[in-house]
UniProtKB/TrEMBL annotation:
Gene3D superfamilies: 1.20.5.110. The keyword Membrane applies. Keywords: Membrane, Transmembrane, Transmembrane helix, Transport. This is t-SNARE coiled-coil homology domain-containing protein. One of its GO terms (cellular component) is membrane. It comes from Triparma strigata. The chain crosses the membrane at residues 105-125. The keyword Lipid biosynthesis does not apply.
């Protein structure tokens, strides 16, 4: 059997039906990924700025705490000094009471002061 010439009747089929649609889809996907990367970069910039601000605030808080700790230490030292002075005054008062005759004379002085106050109110309100 003789063979017929097939050169003009057949045409090669492309591997993909529509190459232009695939190229558009790939370009769209690339653009989408670039947009996502851009948004992520913006989000990372915002996060970085927030972290830097948080670091600055923490440094300011640390400095403020150091100042307040120094103030508390100074106040503690002053309270210790006042406590020592109060103990000295209390001890001297106790010595004075004992030298003046003990609680007996002290009680008499307190009672006389009360009598004076009562007499003053009686004079004023009568």
């Amino acid at each position: 059997m003789p063979r017929k010439s097939t050169s003009s009747s057949y045409r090669a089929l492309p591997l993909y039906e529509d190459d232009s649609n695939d190229t558009d889809d790939i370009m769209s996907a690339v653009r989408s990924q670039q947009e996502m990367l851009h948004k992520q970069d913006e989000s990372l910039d915002v996060l970085g700025n927030s972290a830097a601000r948080l670091g600055q605030i923490s440094l300011e808080i640390s400095e403020e705490l150091q100042v307040q700790n120094k103030m508390l230490d100074d106040m503690g030292n002053e309270l210790d000094d006042a406590d020592i002075n109060l103990e000295i005054v209390t001890r001297k008062t106790q010595e004075l009471i004992q030298k003046s005759g003990g609680c007996k004379y002290f009680s008499i002085i307190v009672v006389l002061c009360l009598v004076v106050v009562i007499l003053f109110f009686l004079i004023v309100y009568t």
